[in-house]
Amino acid sequence: ARFAMADRGGGAMAGKQTASPVDDARAAALLRMDTDSESDAGGDAVGGGDAPQVQQEQGGGVDAATADRLVILRDHISAYPQSYEAHHEYVELLRKAAGTAHDDEEAGQLWVLLSGARESFAKEFPLSEALWLEWVEDCEKRGEERAIGSLLERAVGDYPTPALWKRRMEHERKQGRSAAEVRAIAEAAVRSCGADVANGAVLWEEFADFEKEALGRLEGDADREDQRERVRGIYKRALGLPMVGLKCLHQGFLAFEGLGEESPSSPLSQTLEVSLDELESRETYEDGLSKSDNSQDATLEVFQKYLKYENKYGDPGRVVSLFQRLVCRFPCHDPCWDAFGKYVENQMQDKEFARETYLRAVRNCPWSPQLWARALATSEGPECRPSQEELLNTSLSNALLVQSLTQQSALDLLLVRADALRRAARMEELRQFFRFAWDKLCTLFPDYRDDTFQLARYWARMESPEVATKMWQEMAGRYGSTCPVWLAWVDFELHHGGPASVKAARAIFQKAHSKCSEIAAKWRAFEGEYGSAESAAQAYRKTSLINFSLMAAEAPRQVEAEVPKPTKRKKPATKKPAKKPAKKRAKVDAAAAAEVLPEKGDSEVCTLFVKNLPFDMEQQSLTDLLGGEEAVKECRIVMGWGGKSKGFAYVDCTSEAALQKALEKNGTEVSGRKLFVARSKPPSKVKAPQRRPPNSSGMLVPRHVKYTRRSRVANK
Questions:
Q1: Would you state the pLDDT for residue 697?
Q2: Is residue 71 a contact partner of residue 31, using CB atoms and an 8 Å limit?
Q3: Cβ neighbours of residue 673 under 8 Å, at least 6 residues apart?
Q4: Smallest Cα–Cα separation from 3: which of 79, 96, 101, 116?
């Protein structure tokens, strides 16, 4: 906030690249001022009206656009410390500016800013091999030899590559360390990367050169002979590994022993041949990894095949070395770290090495809950307490600031930390953490909603029954319109509610059974498992009608989605014959037609015909099904003999919209019968009953009269 520069009208935060001369001077002053000397820099900025002219006359320094961009980046990093691109660009711009400084004073000020930027970068992220080597190179130019040793030690912790280990061994030899200290560093180097097929030979060569140099400083014959055996042992170990550059190592061994290159009496010739044969079997994989035009997926596939081969035919050291190459090649690919950690933890069963691996993994992939869980699990114990405290208090909290973090990943990270606190029996901190976790999720995701209520269940289980009940009541008040909160509350009561859990669960069901059909079905299943016959019958009575209406509302959408509408074929255009005059139809008694047909008028347009009804269905139930009193004007179920339903009805709707909505109930299953709902289309005129053609005597016989010879005689 100190470098926000609000008086610039937001130009810096908007990415502005040009500014007025006064603003340029102010940006340059902010760039050069120390974080504890704001007043001095402000005075220079305000009173330095001719500062840009002085800077331009002297030449060099930082131009206005670069200074403005640096201020923008510093503001951005202070607000979002987990922005890798901002850190990287900030360091690159400062390094470029320091290289073009016009005097030592300005170069010193820029070096202080550059060192601070690099420290902030290294605190948030593991730096790459190139960034560490640039840092070491800049320290050498500045003559800061004391800082190089600690930098290289941190570098091999982040990226244990052969180049960084070799650089560290060279530096320790130049600093005049004791032979034991340099030997320990060399052993760590070959143990970490000595089996690297591509570049491991450089470490063995550096190790052998150091031991040969130590041999030249010895005077006693016994000591010299022991040292010569140590050098032979290094060459023997190196030539037993399949690596590129074995022939050069063998030539160095022959020169050490005073033998010629074509000497057949080399004691390590057979070892060299075996290693070269093994190297030949790995050339295919090495060629695949060395291709620069390979995609990431293709390279990962080569690594996978290579790891399977080494695991089958090689030793664990070679597998670990290959895993080191893999994670250095793809440091932000969390499946690589997961596979590496599992191999070290399960195959090698080295807890200390596994802890170091997982700590490196979460620094490279802070968004992975699985890696955090294993890092915390391997860091537990009295001997690992400091690292666990650091993870709980610093690193895991910073992981929540990752911009690409999803809602589920953030929840999983918080649950991982809650697990660690619970295992440590720090219950008061755990309760405070639950409040922090809830506020954090709501802050990071304003529309946060968890249908599984994992955090709420975990939290309630750690509280007393009274507090847990209040928590669930608050949750139900906030999310009571959805089913998951009620089902989660019931599940909690049944598993953690104690002796009165069944009674509490029944009370929840009685309160929420009208929310959705799922809760109603769960209540009936609950009473069947825990309740008596009376309670089961009560649950069925209270949920049957509700279940019926909800299922009726849900079914048409499913039927409409599953069954596509058939397309109508157009008939070919033909000449229509002339219309014949309509025949006169006999009149039918209006009273007889009124028993079957609906009343004429406006209701004819908004009338539904419903058939295949259950015979015990009442008019009120049908009205509720089709939209209630607001949508249904009148409902008439046609009755037969004895007042029993005939299974069909006519329903007058209040409007066309209500009728269209009621048509969606077509296909709804009620009591095992699928309803047929359609618009009623009565004929404009009632058809007269058809008669049989006249008989031989010319008499018309009604259709319903059975014609016999006796009836014909009677008619006569």
A1: 47
A2: yes
A3: 612, 613, 614
A4: 79
Helix (H) / strand (E) element for 174: namely: helix 162-174
Structure confidence at residue 203 (pLDDT): 92
pLDDT given at position 7: 30
Q: Bridge partners of 649? A: 610, 637
The Cα–Cα gap between 92 and 138 comes to 12
Residue 369 has a CB neighbour count (10 Å cut-off) of 19
Residue 488 is given by DSSP the state H
Angstrom distances, CA of residue 584 to CA of 348, 581, 686? 101, 9, 12
Helix or strand holding residue 669 (H, E): strand 669-670
Buried b (16+ CB within 10 A) or exposed e, 178-196: eeeebbebbebbbebbbbb
For residue 340, the model assigns a pLDDT of 93
Q: How does DSSP assign 536-582, residue by residue?
A: HHHHHHHHHHHHHHHHHHHHHHHHHHHSPPPPPPPPPP-PPPPPPPP
Give, for 522, the enclosing helix (H) or strand (E).
helix 517-530
Which is it for strands 673-674 and 669-670: parallel, antiparallel or unpaired?
A: antiparallel
Angle at 312 (CA atoms; ends 311, 313), nearest 5 degrees? 100
Q: Which residues on neighbouring strands pair with residue 132, listed in sequence order? A: none
Query: What does pTM read for this prediction?
Result: 0.58
SS3 of residue 684 by DSSP: coil
Give the contacts of 594 (CB within 8 A, at least 6 positions apart). none
Q: How far apart are CA 130 and CA 164, in angstroms?
A: 10
Query: What 3-state DSSP class applies to 1?
Result: coil
- Report CA-CA distances (Å) from 645 to 273, 619, 651: 98, 10, 15
* pLDDT, averaged in runs of 10, over the chain (716 residues): 29 32 40 38 36 38 82 89 88 88 82 91 88 91 86 89 92 86 91 89 92 84 86 91 90 84 72 90 89 85 92 86 91 91 88 87 84 81 59 64 73 82 81 83 78 77 77 73 76 71 80 78 81 81 59 46 51 53 46 42 69 87 87 88 83 89 87 87 59 50 54 62
Strands, sheet with 676-679, edge to edge from the N-terminal-most edge strand: 632-639, 645-653, 607-611, 676-679
- Across-strand partners of 639? 645
**Which pair of structure tokens corresponds to residue 697?**
């005597």
Amino acid at 468: A
By the 8 A CB rule, do 677 and 631 touch? no
Model pLDDT, residue 50: 37
- Rounded CA separation 451/45 (Å): 55
| Residue 650 parent element (H or E) | strand 645-653
The two tokens of residue 160 are 């244990």
**Contact, 619 vs 637, CB < 8 A?**
yes
Contact yes or no for 322/304 (Cβ under 8 A)? no
Q: Which two tokens stand for residue 704?
A: 């319903």
SS3 state at 71:
helix
Q: Is 519 exposed, middle or buried (0-12, 13-18, 19+ CB in 10 A)?
A: buried
Pair 604, 598: CB distance under 8 Å: yes
Please, what sign has the CA dihedral across residues 523, 524, 528, 529?
Answer: negative
Distance CA 563, CA 556 (A): 10
**Are the C-beta atoms of 611 and 648 separated by less than 8 Å?**
yes
- pLDDT number for residue 480: 66
